[in-house]
């Protein structure tokens, strides 16, 4: 029997497509099972830290009133460094797993089998933590029935059901959530950054409507070439920051490290404290027109500076400023907390160690206490190249390189 031309190739293509889809499905299930297994392992490690705190804080401190607390902190830091995630992520994974195990066991079972999407499992853990015990089982069953929904659709259905099951608490939950309102910044590439805000919905929508109305009014001008999206961004910038040097602008001190050749017209990039490289033209504008910027000139080839040891415990302002500029985040691996809001720790305690750049490490208060109250140890790598940390379980890791 002769096969019509093209039919054979079409059949092969169909088979390859089916096989490719099956591969994708199997890979997704494997990844989901691995995610659930990671959560379970994190829960087990933290449970062991509570049961055997001496592993993380030593025998002497294990019996102290806060020995278990510091053991858990040390275990969280150990996991975070080994897994390459934030400590908050470790704690969140543990919390989510514990909520599912205790309150939504069916969802947890499907998740462990790779058949309940990880984003949906996270949402179930968040929602069920606010529900009263008497509706846990009902919510658990309902979520399993919705497991095939994509995250966006699942999120809407799950939140709606949670609200119906616990309507009396909606007002209180909103009041609690409103206490978490905040603003944050996330650096991006090409000299850009994201500015975000977590606000009560009514405030967020009112603010956006105000920005949108102003932007659309500007867009109506006959000579306006910016898009509405660009106008919204520019309007927000003007409202929050003001035009540089304009009356009423808020004065903020920001450090910019500028190679001397950039000031003379070269193309070498400068460094904006807390962000990283910025183009030379922007650096020249900031250096020329913003007196609140601290201008630091570096060697045009080596970029090196001369450091002088200090004889006092407390670093003088110029030394502290330099350490924080060159090391803008906490020196613990994976920590992104800004050094300007942390401590300057003597790696070798003073007076055995000098008050100098090579013996000062910016540590957030959390990791500063972790260094002194747990079995984490640290040594200076020398030549101001950062620190080498050793976890209570023997894992060795150097400080992360500066972000720029």
Task: Name some characteristics of this structure.
404 residues; alpha+beta; 4-stranded mixed sheet; 3-stranded antiparallel sheet; 15 helices; 51% helix
Fold and architecture overview:
With 404 residues, the chain is α+β, with helices and mostly antiparallel strands. Helix content is 51%, strand content 12%. The strands form four sheets. Strands 5-4-3-6 form a four-stranded mixed beta sheet. Helix 1 (7-51) packs antiparallel against helix 3 (67-83). The longest helix is centred in the N-terminal third of the chain and has 45 residues, at 7-51.
Q: What is the structural class?
A: alpha+beta
| Gap between N and C termini | 68 Å
Q: Point out poorly predicted stretches.
A: 244-252, 304-310
Helical segment tally? 15
Strand order of the biggest β-sheet: 5-4-3-6
Q: What gyration radius follows from the Cα positions, in whole Å?
A: 27 Å
Order of helices and strands: HHHHHHHHHEEHHEHEEHEHEEHEEE
Q: What summary fits the major beta sheet?
A: 4 strands, mixed
* Overall residue-averaged pLDDT value: 81
User: Approximately how much helix is present in the residues?
Assistant: 40-55%
Strand content: 5-15%
What's the total count of β strands?
A: 11
Task: Describe the protein's topology.
Layout: H1 7-51, H2 54-62, H3 67-83, H4 87-103, H5 105-112, H6 118-128, H7 136-145, H8 151-165, H9 170-178, E1 182-187, E2 193-198, H10 201-219, H11 228-240, E3 255-259, H12 260-263, E4 270-272, E5 276-278, H13 280-289, E6 294-298, H14 317-326, E7 343-346, E8 360-363, H15 365-373, E9 377-380, E10 387-390, E11 396-398
Parallel strand pairs: 3-6
Antiparallel strand pairs: 1-2, 3-4, 4-5, 7-8, 9-10, 10-11
